[in-house]
Amino acid sequence: MDARHKLIDIAAFLDRVERAEGDADFRLEAFHVAMKRLDDKGKDRAQDVLMAFSDPTEEPIPVAPGKGACGAWPGESE
């Protein structure tokens, strides 16, 4: 039941996004990449979903662009 609830919540979120005006940002693209990872076979789905939102670079940046996390890495998502 918990997984069912979460899927319905995601479906409602996507419905709201599609009804909204304006351009989608990089977080929605990362979300779609993460959703595709759920359909992958294997044992690492949770890690793959997490990595769809994560910054894969290893070099530190000189200055943070903001105060907090923004929910996804704004770079390329695959």
Could you characterize the architecture of this molecule?
The chain has 78 residues and is an all-alpha fold. 50% of the residues lie in helices and 0% in strands. It has helices spanning 2-19, 26-37, 45-53. The longest helix is centred in the N-terminal third of the chain and has 18 residues, at 2-19. It starts with a helix and ends in a 25-residue tail after the last helix. The mean pLDDT is 87.
Poorly predicted ranges (pLDDT <50, ≥5 residues)? none
Number of distinct helices: 3
Distance between the termini: 31 Å
- SSE class: mainly alpha
The proportion of residues forming helix, as a percent range, comes to 40-55%
Q: Tally of extended strands?
A: 0
Q: What percent strand? A: under 5%
Shape: globular
Q: State the order of secondary-structure elements, H for helix, E for strand.
A: HHH
Task: Write down the Rg.
Answer: 15 Å
Main sheet properties:
none
Mean of residue pLDDT values? 87
List the helices and strands and how they pair.
Elements: H1 2-19, H2 26-37, H3 45-53
Describe the structure in brief.
With 78 residues, the protein is mostly helical.
List keywords for this structure.
78 residues; mainly alpha; 3 helices; 50% helix; 0% strand
